[in-house]
Task: inverse folding
């Protein structure tokens, strides 16, 4: 293997060079000292954002050029030199860093500081990453996490020189923050893209073409299928790729499609301060963790949002303080599994403290140990501003240990409202869903919560027509709605999603018309029981966060009470 062959090999994405081959190649030419430099290059390459072709080959070329002046005439005895080279090489290995050194260095990734300025990729100039006053129009679909993601994406683009517009017609860039939880949510985006197609066609005749991007879960789930199906889409960015938006848009400006749908094990955007999309808002969402490890049979979230990782407590408290200083009156702590929060960023908090689950509940994944848990975070957040109300969503029933319930009861500014997703009232269906609890354990938890937090408001999620659900299973779900009497509910017909465990192992055997009938029955029963539950608050005086008026010209105010209960015959609505 000659020097040129080595360069070609290390610049290949499938680089698999044998160290001995490289050593002999250099040693035979009196270039043995280059071996150490090459090792350093290969090590550095891992930490660079450039690909192998852009980084390793460039650095290797410089290294080899530096040594190319060595002549074979300086080594009159090749065998002796080779022997000396081997000894020198061995001594360097013996005195160099050990494997444990690199493992320790990589074990605790540090959050990026917002003040850091990263070098652009080799194919772009720094000024090409700037927005240059181009106007961005953002549309948000789906859950509260997507609302927060929109604010994160806008914060990143704003720092790059983009402007925000609420006028679709004047936008240079249109970004749709998407949901993929059900087929209907994705169909909404396909329909929207069809509407935008005419707008983009008209803009093709102008000097500034329109760029369209798909962000979030749908981009993560479908990936290149979107680019192949809709040629009008210029940019794809998954939930963990928003930092890359300036680069993706810069590539799109050249007329190419650009995508980044890589999921991360540590991205939490802890150093990105979300920009509130509504200046007059009284409340805000604060993301505290991302991803989910529960792997429920029906759920696509672990495949579109990745594994669980939590923000450092310090960065969350800093954001809450800034929101308090801005005059906001309420924050909602967000996460796909918000009460599974675990800050392991500080070594001193990583001791093997046992993890307490709700009584009668189990976890599908290996239970983690150590770290600062949700009870600690909730305690600290509630102390930032006693006048600021605190909510959190969406939790999993398994992660409600007594310390969390006690804290909610004790702190006046923590809202007495808990979202407790049941999904089904049948233990058989719950087992098929891999929820980690039975109906009996769930009902026991409901009773325990109501005993611990008198007057608590409960809400829940239910799925109608899951794989294999029988009429008897459905009747049990109806009976659970009547037994618990939720104040609020989110009910949906089951929608099979690719990649999920149900897609690979179960059969979507409940006819669509049966799903819809069962869903209507659940909605009817829920409304009946919610009315009974909410009527108990009629005549009570409640503290209300006023958010505005119900409609133009109306004198009726709307807002949320502390426990988020609908109040009939009063001026407060949910």
Result:
């Amino acid at each position: 293997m000659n020097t040129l062959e080595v360069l070609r090999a290390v610049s290949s994405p499938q680089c698999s060079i044998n160290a001995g081959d490289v050593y002999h190649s250099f040693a035979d030419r009196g270039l043995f000292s280059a071996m150490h430099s090459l090792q350093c290059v290969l090590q550095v390459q891992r930490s660079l954002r450039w690909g192998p072709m852009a980084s390793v080959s460039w650095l290797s070329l410089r290294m080899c050029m530096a040594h190319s002046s060595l002549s074979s005439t300086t080594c009159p005895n090749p065998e002796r030199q080779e022997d000396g080279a081997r000894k020198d090489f061995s001594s360097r290995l013996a005195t160099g860093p050990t494997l444990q050194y690199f493992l320790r260095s990589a074990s605790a990734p540090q959050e990026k500081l917002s003040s850091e300025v990263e070098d652009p990729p080799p194919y772009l100039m720094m000024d090409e990453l700037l927005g240059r006053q181009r106007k961005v129009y953002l549309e948000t679909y789906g859950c509260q996490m997507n609302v927060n993601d929109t604010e994160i994406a806008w914060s990143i683009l704003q720092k790059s020189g983009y402007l925000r517009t609420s006028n679709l017609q004047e936008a240079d860039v249109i970004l749709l923050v998407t949901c993929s939880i059900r087929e209907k949510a994705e169909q909404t985006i396909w329909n929207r893209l069809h509407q935008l197609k005419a707008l983009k066609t008209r803009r093709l005749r102008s000097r500034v073409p329109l760029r369209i991007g798909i962000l979030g879960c749908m981009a993560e789930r479908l990936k290149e299928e979107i680019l192949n199906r809709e040629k009008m889409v210029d940019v794809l960015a998954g939930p963990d790729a928003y930092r890359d938006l300036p680069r993706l848009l810069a590539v799109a400006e050249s007329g190419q499609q650009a995508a980044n749908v890589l999921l991360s094990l540590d991205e939490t955007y802890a150093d990105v301060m979300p920009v509130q999309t509504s200046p007059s808002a009284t409340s805000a969402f604060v993301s505290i963790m991302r991803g989910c490890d529960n792997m429920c049979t029906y759920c696509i979230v672990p495949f579109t949002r990745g594994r669980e990782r939590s923000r450092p407590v310090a960065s969350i408290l800093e954001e809450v303080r800034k929101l308090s200083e801005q005059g906001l009156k309420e924050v909602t702590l967000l996460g796909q599994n918000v009460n599974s929060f675990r800050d392991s960023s500080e070594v001193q908090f990583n001791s093997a403290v046992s993890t307490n689950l709700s009584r009668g509940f189990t976890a599908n994944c290996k239970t983690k140990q150590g770290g600062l848990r949700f009870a600690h975070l909730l305690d600290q957040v509630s102390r930032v501003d006693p006048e600021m109300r605190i909510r959190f969503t969406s939790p999993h029933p398994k992660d409600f240990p007594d310390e969390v319930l006690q804290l909610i009861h004790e702190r006046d500014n923590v809202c007495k409202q808990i979202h407790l997703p049941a999904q089904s009232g049948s233990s058989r269906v719950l087992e098929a869903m891999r929820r980690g609890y039975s109906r009996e354990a769930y009902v026991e938890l409901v009773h325990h919560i109501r005993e611990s937090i008198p007057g608590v408001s409960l809400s829940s999620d239910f799925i109608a027509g899951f794989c294999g659900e029988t009429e008897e299973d459905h009747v049990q779900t109806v009976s659970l709605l009547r037994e618990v009497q939720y104040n609020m509910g989110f009910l949906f017909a089951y929608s099979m999603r690719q990649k999920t465990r149900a897609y690979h192992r179960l059969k979507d055997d409940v006819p669509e018309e049966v799903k819809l009938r069962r869903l209507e029955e659940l909605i009817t029963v829920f409304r009946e029981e919610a009315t009974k539950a909410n009527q108990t608050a009629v005549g009570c005086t409640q503290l209300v966060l006023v958010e505005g008026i119900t409609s133009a010209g109306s004198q009726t105010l709307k807002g949320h009470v502390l426990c988020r209960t609908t109040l009939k015959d009063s001026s407060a609505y949910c």
